[in-house]
Amino acid sequence: MAQLVSLITNIETISSTQLTQQTQSILNQINNIRYEKNKSAECRIIVVANPKPDKAIITKISVEEGIPITFSVQTMFSDTNFIAEQRADLPTNIKDIQSLYQKMTKLYIEHSENKNRMKVFAGTNFIDFNMTGQNLSGFVLTLSRFYFEDLLNINFTDENLGDTIFYIKNTLPPNYIKMDNILTNKSKVYFQHY
């Protein structure tokens, strides 16, 4: 837990060219990093511990609105997905949790030896991100959430958009539409009006 807290709080100063063995070991144990925004005053990074071979490990950053905003790290067991009792606070001076999230994922994608690392964004909610110019080519984006209007701003070449959810910025009545994925012809994409 202490090593994970150190990695997160020092992400700005970690050199991506010369990783320590400890940092490399942590990156090798991560398989998925999620960003979630909820309506309370706590931001959590939930990390799945004790990974099984080839099984997704979830690292979840929950950004929750409220005052005061607190930051913490909590572990989760990979075999049961139950929240473990290990928990540690993060500094409250984190100013941009989205930037921290993007730096963590960039470091992970570049250096993790996990062969499933392209699943890092599966289930991620990108609604509050500025996605203009983002390159998501090659990623598995299952159950990730985007704005439909961002389709022209993001490089989606060769990605897996299976069960990706797109929200449309308009005032239509709530309506959940499941339709063939016209972008890749591989699977289904969900469009949700709200």
Overview of the structural elements:
By secondary structure, the chain is α/β, with parallel strands linked by helices. It folds into two domains: 2-119, no CATH class; 145-193, no CATH class. Helices cover 16% and strands 30% of the residues. The chain has three helices and nine strands, in the order ααβββββαββββ. It has helices at 2-9, 21-28, 97-111; strands at 32-38, 42-49, 58-64, 70-77, 83-90, 145-147, 164-168, 175-180, 188-193. A five-stranded mixed β-sheet has the order 1-3-2-4-5, with helices on one face. A four-stranded mixed β-sheet has the order 6-7-9-8, with no helix packed on it. β8 and β9 (188-193) form a beta hairpin. It is globular and about 40 Å long. The model is unreliable at 171-187 (pLDDT under 50). It comes from Escherichia coli. This is YhiS.
Descriptors:
194 residues, alpha/beta, 2 domains, four-stranded mixed β-sheet, 3 helices, 9 strands, 16% helix, globular, YhiS
Write the layout of secondary structure elements.
Blueprint: H1 2-9, H2 21-28, E1 32-38, E2 42-49, E3 58-64, E4 70-77, E5 83-90, H3 97-111, E6 145-147, E7 164-168, E8 175-180, E9 188-193
Parallel strand pairs: 1-3, 2-4, 6-7, 7-9
Antiparallel strand pairs: 2-3, 4-5, 8-9
